[in-house]
Amino acid sequence: MGILLRLTSQKVPTSIGMVSDAEARRLVRLRQLAMKVTRAASTVVLALFVLCVLATLTTGAESPPRVAWLGGDAEAGHFFDAFRQGLRDLGYIEGQNIIIEARSSERRPERYPDLAAELVRLKVSVIVAASPPALRAVARATRTIPIVMRVSDDPAAGGIVTSLAHPSGNITGLYSLSAELSAKRLELLKQALPRITRVAVLMDSTNRGSKTWFTETVTAAHTLAIQLQPVEARSVDELEGAFRAAVDGRAEALITLRNPLIVRRRTQIVRLAERYRIPTMFDERQFVEEGGLMAYGTNLVELYRRAAYFVDKILKGAKPGDLPVEQPTRFEFVVNRKTAETLGLTISQAVLQRVDQVIP
After folding, report:
1. What is the CATH number of the domain that holds 113?
2. What is the pLDDT of residues 171-215, one digit of tens each?
3. Beta bridge partners of 281
């Protein structure tokens, strides 16, 4: 017991000076290692804390709404740009507070069903159907996702919505009144070319909207003492044949009844009119900008910009069925001066006074 007491009471070295050099070096290394371990542990703890904070913030933040755009080549350029500008005007910035999923059929209408199904699978907040074929595909693909449409024919008469004032369902948007303006186009054409008595009508009689348009045009033709000559084009291959038929039938001018083929082949149709030297009346200013003689109708660029208003309302909680379908109240009459001169035509001053824009 006495020996044990002497051993435990012996003073243990507490300073480096009381130990050997080797032991001192060992103690220094141990202290340095301990300091490194402490710093590393502190760094790990801090990193874990930051990750937890970031994870909390990310979980709490809402992802930007995803808005889909579905159209063809005709809607992929300036019309899509107009829609995006409309969103910017309302305070939306792509990639920050909104994401746009744009899809195009690329001149292949058969692709619309697959594209519509893809957008539905993405669970977007709203789908903008930029053309009637796109609308048909999207309407079949979903009855729950809100749809903003742009159509040429009466959507209530076509069964797309219950009524213009109360659409109900998941579809609303804009109706450009193209059929109702058919008579006005023929009237303006007659005023610009008062001597014409025979007018060709480029159309696809299998298109449901074209039938309505043609009925309106026939009524106006009787009043204006004009004989109509329908020329059919149901595919790209039939377009040139339709123009030849118009010329062979001694048509003095030609008007178009809007359908997907005419929209997709706008440039080709304008070039055919130039080649066969036949005055033309269209329903959209873009034809005139490319060289067509004249057009009367809705400014579609403005309509697509207005589509952003519907998207904004829906993203803020409005139900599409409660948003009335809008119709344009302003229409534009556009004439291409160079084309008139090329055809040897003189547009009277009385008609020019009614023109909203003369393209040089």
Report:
1. 3.40.50.2300
2. 999 998 877 799 999 999 999 999 999 999 999 998 877 888 898
3. 255, 294
